[in-house]
Amino acid sequence: MRNLSIVVFLTVLFICNAAGANTLTVKTVHSGDIVEFEGGFTARFTGIRAPEKSTKLGYEVYDYTKRRLEGKIVKVFTYTTNNMASGIVYDEDGYPFVQIVYGESRDSRDWSTNFNELLLKKGYARVDEKYLPAELEYFKKIEELARGEKIGIWETE
Fold this sequence. Notes:
Elements: H1 2-16, E1 21-31, E2 34-37, E3 42-45, E4 48-49, H2 56-69, E5 73-78, E6 97-102, E7 113-114, H3 115-121, E8 126-127, H4 139-149
């Protein structure tokens, strides 16, 4: 039933905005890489995995995500295989994947911060090879740079 309601919600989003990006408000941050939008749509960030909230760093990532996104209006790009709601990619827990883009100004045309990338740059996430679309292969380079700087999850490696 949950997946059906998500598919219906995402179908409406695709119909309303054929360009693929939808402007939504982040209602609740559940973890460093899972957020819920107003309307009950909950999603995981495409191409990355943050540490579990039960760990020290995981809680830090959760808190960072919460402070940056909760209550904010963002652009949401759903990961699909065919640019249609029928091609939405879900993780093993049934969450659809999304990228989030936002900015500091009220004008969404000026938004350029990709939150998925930001978590990688800060060492707050690692690349999720299983759910990494071809167009996001550059995430590996961002992860490599964070690893080289020994920040975040790479601090002790």
